Amino acid sequence: MNILDKIIIDKKREVELKKSIIPVSQLEASVLFNSRTYSLSKLLKNSFSGIIAEHKRRSPSKAIINNNHSVEDVVLGYQNAGVCGISVLTDAKYFGGSLDDLLLAKASVNIPLLRKEFIVDEYQILEAKAHGADVILLIAAVLTRKEIKQLSEFAHSLGLEVLLEVHNLEELETAIMPSLDMIGVNNRNLKSFEVSLDYSKELASKIPDEFVKVSESGISSFEAVKELQKYGYQGFLMGEHFMKTENPGSEAQRFIQKLVI
User: Fold this and answer.
1) Among 45, 99, 132, 230, which one has the highest count of C-beta atoms within 10 angstroms of its own C-beta?
2) Residue 162 and residue 258: Cα distance in Å, rounded?
3) 54 tagged catalytic
4) What is the Cα 127 distance to its own chain's centre?
5) Where is the Indole-3-glycerol phosphate synthase domain (predicted)?
6) Catalytic residue among 165, 171, 240, 251
7) How far apart, in Å, are the Cα atoms of 105 and each of 141, 201, 217?
């Protein structure tokens, strides 16, 4: 059993436990549930950099990345740097995140927030909406086409955008549908953790132009972003590169300034 399989087993158990304690009605009663959402896809289409910066404390492949900064400081730094959106890890066991991180981010900035999570149930989408998310992530590797359709349409009914993550052509061809806003290619194989930008390059021409193309993971230089822009990518999800520094916001600002020169 690989790490992704373990994460999904744990996630399904976690969701069922949460359902037994916090009813849907409580999530729908959240002060944020009917709040305005921001469009990440529109910002990416009109951006010179396309950077989506991530708040990420740790990961199964890298252990501790950065546990020293508050959520507020990191996301404010990102917003001041001029990022298009912020990805917030909410998985606790494997990434050290929480829904509280998303809530604190919402209270701190006014740019699109992506709930970075292993979503397997509509309940998690309600959680995302109740805690201030603007976008959800769906991972093709762990969902059937029917599940992707159900979850993406449900997200749209709540006013949330959908970023679908794929890793290979089979996943892309199986999962692509009108109820998606952005297609992300993960350069990190979630089963082996091997990283290569070739995954994004190879799939670029297969992604229809109606979807905003996003390259995820393994991006650590502005040269890599420039190269991927040639393949039609408008979004670049970066977490570890910024979070491993003493000041993630300052590093994001330096990175973006190099891109727009």
Assistant:
1) 132
2) 29
3) yes
4) 15
5) 4-252
6) 165
7) 28, 32, 21
Q: Which of 213, 217, 240, 251 is catalytic?
A: 217
Known active-site residue 56:
yes
Catalytic residue from among 11, 56, 106, 213: 56
For the residues 138-151, what does the mean pLDDT come to? Answer: 97
pTM attached to this predicted model: 0.95
Torsion of CA 215, 160, 140, 63, to 10 degrees: 60
Q: Which two tokens stand for residue 140?
A: 């093709």
Is there a catalytic annotation at residue 28?
Answer: no
Task: Name residue 197's beta-bridge partners.
Answer: none
Q: What is the pLDDT of residues 177-200, one digit of tens each?
A: 999 999 999 998 766 677 899 999
Q: Is 191 a catalytic residue?
A: no
% of the chain beyond a pLDDT of 70: 95
Q: Are 199 and 172 in contact (CB under 8 A)?
A: no
Question: Closest by alpha carbon to 101, among 131, 81, 60?
Answer: 131
pLDDT tens by residue, 111-129: 999 999 999 999 999 999 9
Of the pLDDT bands very low, low, confident and very high (cuts 50, 70, 90), residue 55 is: very high
Contact (CB, 8 A) for 233 and 204: yes
Residue 8 pLDDT greater than 90, yes or no? yes
Of the candidates 111, 118, 115, 138, the residue with the CA atom closest to the CA atom of residue 127: 115
